[in-house]
Specification:
4 domains; two-stranded antiparallel ribbon; single chain; 13 helices; Arc Repressor Mutant, subunit A; about 270 residues
Length: about 270
């Protein structure tokens, strides 16, 4: 009788125990004595069995993952429908208003409040712009007492000499639209027409188109302090206005300008 047995002839559970104990030779056989010892152990303590392998139940996405997915979905929706309200977003994506509000924070510069959907009858000028406009009027009146009619060259000369303190000619044109309009607003004779290089380069609609392009770039998140950073990246092949120019000609705060632009963008898909 052979002293070795093929392990394949043994019950699977016995073969598994012998393998785990490193008693199986390279040729797939095991010493008969080892099998007898294991048999005696089985009679006394019960048949060996393979351990039960416990697998963790597959879990669904976490709350953070769900929120991230919802944020991405909201972002895609707003890029296609900028100027939407939170309620419109929630309804379109079939989520609660609370969920939409929480998940929309990273992309909320493209959202309009319900109260912002309609342009107010009157828009208040920012305190800074109003103050600068008042300074310009005072400077023009003071300059007209020294030179009349008051040309833009004469005004610039008075500024350089320190005889008059006020905004530059370019700033005055941004505030009033033209040199003549600025002088007329305070009853001052304007002298000769302002040369072309001081005339406005852009209309308000032109400037809002630049703001729209900026708002569509997700890198800058619609922040006012990033507008001139964005401008520097696209100012090579074309001339792009500064945020100061946009504010001066369009008027209002950055939020006013963003809201006006979003209403125009909303009009393209509504």
């Amino acid at each position: 009788m052979s002293e070795r047995l093929p392990v394949t002839d043994l019950p699977e559970s016995v073969a598994w125990v012998l393998t785990e104990l490193n008693l199986v030779a390279a040729d797939g056989t095991v010493d008969r004595h080892h099998v007898q010892v294991l048999g005696e152990w089985t009679v006394r303590f019960g048949a060996p069995s393979k351990p039960v392998v416990r697998t963790r139940a597959k879990r669904g996405p976490t709350k953070a993952q769900k929120r991230s997915e919802l944020t991405n979905a909201i972002g895609e929706y707003l890029m296609a429908r900028p100027g939407s309200t939170l309620q419109e977003v929630a309804t379109a994506l079939n989520v609660s208003l609370v969920e939409a509000t929480t998940a929309s924070h990273p992309v909320d510069w493209l959202i309009l409040e319900e109260s912002e959907l309609v342009e107010p009858a009157e828009r208040m000028e920012s305190e800074t712009t109003a103050a600068t406009r008042d300074r310009a009027r005072a400077a023009l009146q003071a300059a007209s007492l020294l030179v009349s009619p008051l040309s833009h060259q004469n005004y610039t000369g008075l500024l350089r000499e320190g005889r008059v303190k006020g905004p530059s000619v370019a700033r005055i044109v941004q505030l009033f639209g033209s040199w003549t309009a600025a002088c007329t607003s305070v009853g001052v004779a304007s002298g000769e027409a302002l040369r072309r290089n001081y005339e406005r380069t852009w209309t308000a609609d032109d400037l809002l188109a630049f703001v729209e392009r900026y708002l569509r770039d997700p890198v800058y998140r619609g922040a006012s302090h990033q507008f001139d950073v964005w401008r520097a990246t696209v100012n090579g092949a074309e001339k792009v206005p500064s945020l100061g120019t946009v504010r001066n000609i369009v008027g209002g705060t950055w939020n006013d300008i963003r809201t006006t632009t979003l209403r125009k963008m909303r009009g393209t898909w509504q």
